[in-house]
């Protein structure tokens, strides 16, 4: 009971914050994997933006990645505020 009633509720903001950081890191790793042929937004940015010198595609993919990271971060921060009982 001590774990479920005391320790877990106290640790929940840190756990949610860690999950948020992990998701942001996964987005950045998937973009980096796309640069070496892994697919996804990084692949689109390299293939169409960099190799074909299309600055518009490059800028749009970068903005999409930034927006995706900001959405994940905002949701994570909102959940942390909701579960934090200090």
UniProtKB/TrEMBL annotation:
Q: Which GO terms describe its biological process?
A: D-methionine transmembrane transport
Q: Where are the transmembrane segments?
A: 15-41, 53-72
Which Pfam families does the UniProt entry name for this protein?
BPD_transp_1
InterPro entries on file:
AA_ABC_Transporter_Permease, MetI-like, MetI-like_sf
Name this polypeptide is given: Methionine ABC transporter permease
Q: How does it sit in the membrane?
A: Multi-pass membrane protein
Matching PANTHER family: ABC TRANSPORTER PERMEASE, D-METHIONINE TRANSPORT SYSTEM PERMEASE PROTEIN METI-RELATED
Query: Which coarse location class applies to the principal site listed for this UniProt protein?
Result: membrane
Keywords, sorted A to Z: Cell membrane, Membrane, Transmembrane, Transmembrane helix, Transport
Protein family per UniProt:
Belongs to the binding-protein-dependent transport system permease family.
- Subcellular location per the Swiss-Prot or TrEMBL entry: Cell membrane
Q: Which PROSITE patterns match?
A: ABC_TM1 (PS50928)
* This protein's GO CC annotations: plasma membrane
**Domain ABC transmembrane type-1: residue ranges:** 1-73
